[in-house]
Amino acid sequence: MKRIWKTGVMALALATPMAAQAQLTDAERAAVLARLPSDDGSDLADATRGKIAEIPGGLIRTSDGKTVWDAGAFDFLNAETAPSTVHPSLWRQARLNRIHGLFEIVPGKVWQVRGYDIAVMTIISGKTGWIVIDPLLTEEAAAAAMQLTESKIGKRPISALLFSHSHADHFGGVGGIISADEVKKRKVPVVAPHGFAEEAVSENVLAGNAMTRRSSYMFGTALAPGVEGRVDNGLGTGLSVGTTGYLSPNMLIGPEGGLKTIDGVRFDFLDAAGTEAPAEFLFYLPDFKVLHTTEVSVKTMHNILTLRGAQVRDALLWSKIIDKALVKWGGSAEVQIASHNWPTWGQARVAGYLENQRDAYRFVHDRTLGRANSGMTLHELADGIAEPSAQQQAYAARGYYGTINHNMKATYQRYYGWWDGVPANFNPLPPVTAGKGYVELAGGADALLAAGRKAQKAGNHRWAAELLNHLVFAEPANAAAKAALADSYEALGFAAESGIWRNYYLAGAATLRGTELPRKGASTQSRSFISAIPTAEFFDALATRFAAERSGNMRARINFILPDTKETLGIMVNGDVEIPRYGATLADANATVTLNRKDFDAIVLGETDFPKLMQSGAMKIDGDSGLFLRWLMLHPPFDPAFAVVTP
Predict the structure, then answer these.
(1) pTM of the entire predicted model
(2) CA 541, CA 208: separation in Å to the nearest integer?
């Protein structure tokens, strides 16, 4: 069997005019390769085992011709040898992740569809139909995955759905394989962990605009696929492009977990809330000896804090949950599957895989606390630390998605907060002010640019990036500064083993060079998703857009009445703050607005607006309508493409 990558010729070089200076020496290249575990071909065997069929060309399009997924865009990964612009370990991971198709896991019982989204969809043969687990991110990708499945193993009704956790790439495609009406009519179980509904629709509501913008950097959607662009995300090749929907669960698995029978198949659940997601479980199928580790344990180290932003996760709890699974099922599970990447076969290999995963997260937690309690600061404790033995022994624990570096910083943040304890860092200058100070200190922009270029020639791109970033923030129109900073970002990206580090660096370079691709990704602007957002969350999010500086010290009291959902909400505007009070009406209201929630959703979806609703009579305003309209105008939309790497 061919190995999935070669180590004979490798240079982590910079494919720019700076290449001659940035290229690593033979000794440095040898050191990179020496750190990697041996490759016995078992991962490639696991990733290809049981393949039945694939979508021709890996191409998924909508009925009107829009591309949802194009595996062909990553044909450059056919080369076994990593190019000079991609870390060899990431190249190996990318080649494994792009293997796509329908795969049989347990003969006649369990299958997976992999490689058509960042996530994996699992299908189990139940007593009366198909039990589907994690129906991908978008409806279009899920529909194509189900069509491939049914074309090869038969058409049966969907008898149950399982959403393993509260991230959209594991439930968003549900509308592509079944409708809410059919679920209700046939009483199809929709199983999810406790807390799912609250977390699934609320995580990105309040902080959604900034998360989405940073996601374009993290997932590389700002980059074209290629050896100098997007290669892989660690968890999978990339995100499908389409519509993300939502379906409310009707069966929740509580903190106690335990054995449940779903359409004749036994599931033994283990609660994993607070690890990779606020609401999550993993489960064992005792009849098939299959352990599904959802996203708690995948073929990479995960994130304690994602680069897009999220709540900081608990590395200690994460390690303990994996250990619970190891103790409970490590001696019996013969196959491990997950919501990303490929399976592991063999009881001893499954147990070894869980041990390495457990140890990696425990290492992050304990070494962070050990170093912090010894006096190391936020950026000191993660810098230059030796790789843990778990990563030295197994590719599956390596940092293709999360990394030891930023996971240790996140764990520090969880315990100690954003500040490292150094007084100078308690209230640092904002980037533009600091940048101007550095320019003056260096003796002018040309001198600072020269210092950055000198650091680049010495191969010190971290220091070069720090110097040049100050110059860019001081002088955002300085084309030479932006080009130089882009050079260092590219050098750092090309050398990154982590797919998301690579993406973020290279997307930053693309922004500086003006080559960033327009935003394209999954859209949550579907009625099923929008209607699932609680009304209280909607108005809390609206309050974050309140332009207090333009309000003229507005004082207002506005009531909202939503007859179709029998909800009420009062908004108090006190000059520079807006306070929504859910479930109440204000006795001293200046205006009372009556409209159905479904019409409010239509406004969010862009299907209508307030003036149209007023003209049609679907919306009524009692009281001071002029005040209401002035209040409304004080909520401008956020810029979805706001500046990240420049002021």
Answers:
(1) 0.94
(2) 9
Both tokens assigned to 538: 């909607």
DSSP 328-369: HHTTT-SEEE-SSS--EESHHHHHHHHHHHHHHHHHHHHHHH
Question: pLDDT digits over 539-581, tens only?
Answer: 999 999 999 999 999 999 999 999 999 999 999 999 999 999 9
Tracing tokens 């393949």 back to the chain, one arrives at 51
User: What phi, psi does 187 have (nearest 5°)?
Assistant: 55, 50
What does the pLDDT look like over 145-194, one tens digit per residue?
999 999 999 999 999 999 999 999 999 999 999 999 999 999 999 999 99
Name residues whose C-beta falls within 8 Å of residue 645's C-beta, 6 or more positions apart in sequence: 472, 485, 508, 511, 512
User: What share of the chain in percent tops pLDDT 70?
Assistant: 94
CA distance linking residue 379 with residue 395, whole number of Å = 26
Q: Which amino acid is at 242?
A: G
Can you tell me the distance from the alpha carbon of 170 to that of 122, in angstroms, rounded to the nearest whole number? 11
C-alpha 111/C-alpha 153 separation (Å) is 9
* Interacting residues of 541 by C-beta distance below 8 A, sequence separation 6+: 205, 206, 208
- Candidates 282, 319, 304, 487; CA nearest to 405 is 304
Residues 6+ apart with CB under 8 A from 309: 207, 210, 211, 214
Q: How far apart are CA 376 and CA 378, in angstroms?
A: 7
pLDDT digits (tens, 9 = 90+) for 266-306: 999 999 999 999 999 999 999 999 999 999 999 999 999 99
Cα 395 to the chain's mean position, in Å?
A: 21
Query: Which residues are CB-neighbours of 252 under 8 A, at least 6 positions away?
Result: 191, 192, 193, 194, 196
Q: What is the model's pLDDT at position 29?
A: 59
Closest C-alpha among 224, 114, 208, 111 to residue 168 = 208
The answer to whether 404 touches 385, Cβ cutoff 8 Å, is yes
